[in-house]
UniProtKB/TrEMBL annotation:
The keyword ATP-binding applies. InterPro entries: AAA+_ATPase, ArsA/GET3_ATPase-like, ATPase_ArsA/GET3, P-loop_NTPase. Gene3D superfamilies: P-loop containing nucleotide triphosphate hydrolases. GO terms for molecular function: ATP binding; ATP hydrolysis activity. This is Arsenite efflux ATP-binding protein ArsA. It comes from Georgenia satyanarayanai. The lineage of its organism: Bacteria, Bacillati, Actinomycetota, Actinomycetes, Micrococcales. Keywords: ATP-binding, Nucleotide-binding. It comes from the Bacteria. The keyword ATP-binding applies. Residues 8-229 form the AAA+ ATPase domain. Belongs to the arsA ATPase family. Pfam families: ArsA_ATPase.
Amino acid sequence: MLLELAAQRQVLFVGGKGGVGKTAVASAVALAQARAGRRVLVVSTDPAHNLGHLWERQVGDREVALAPGLDGLEIDPARTTDEHLREVGHTLRRLMPEHLSREVDKHLALARDAPGTHEAAVLERIAEVLESSDHDLVVFDTAPSGHTARLMSLPETMSAWTEGLLRRQDRSARFGAALRGLDDDGAAASIVGTGRRRDQRADRDQEIRRILLRRRTRFAQLRDLLADDTRTAFVIVLAAERLPALETIELYGRLLRSGVSVGALVVNKRSPADRGEFLARRRAQEQVHLETVREALPHVPLLELPLLAEDIVGEPALERLAGEIARAR
Ligand SMILES: Nc1ncnc2c1ncn2[C@@H]1O[C@H](COP(=O)(O)OP(=O)(O)OP(=O)(O)O)[C@@H](O)[C@H]1O
Ligand SMILES: [Mg+2]
């Protein structure tokens, strides 16, 4: 069921609480899709990456081949933020009068630690990866729940923010034009210097507008992609325990409110029923929490994956997990 869901999509987000098996499930689904002949990219957006550990190789902020048809990438939020701010600084310095460049530096230093800056930078990087990727499927292995839900609602927030800036810019451009109109009527317009300053200001306004419009288009496209359940699916991985079950229900609601529908729930690490009394009791306990989720979200497909004897490290182990995913109901 999960593999069918992935087979029909271009983008898959895998989210959930820490340690539940997001990276393992994302990688196993990606591997299965690559084996089925699609070109797949698996991207980790979690600052605490473990894609590299799982594949037993170095993965960084540049695509590396993990298996035939499968590439991997770890987005580095700190580096992404630095690059993002460097680019913003470059643009601002070019557009602002020179005597304000100290102000620009101060503003950017503050922005680095402001809430949301990392997420915004990661979001830009996600948009960039999706725009430039030539893969048939991109699987995002995301950070634990809260972070992801915020990330999913960011395109909306940022479009609104950009929209506001554009409106303000429109108003100030009109205001500027009116002032220039006054200039034109007065003798000052005949002074060459004033004319040049006027042109510079008009160019600058144009450029700011172009930058804002480009960002608005980018975020609107990303938002449309995330909200389009024929192209994108979100999968929540969880353990059948009390808190993960409750958090899953909450995450589902938050995603829904930001326009993202959840395509499947994966209950990972189910205890076996036939390996002694201790594990059988655990399984019975898990069943209670699983029922809570089923009752709260009756329409969302749910599949269960067994607790495996060994850690999932390396391609053969991921293949075993992919086999379990193919068999699961
Ligand atoms: N079905 C399973 N059976 C046994 N071990 C599993 C199973 N699924 C995942 N694991 C193990 O659980 C641990 C956590 O898995 P994984 O790293 O995929 O989780 P995660 O949700 O990505 O964690 P994080 O939030 O830290 O990124 C790993 O050691 C992994 O090998
Ligand atoms: Mg992980």
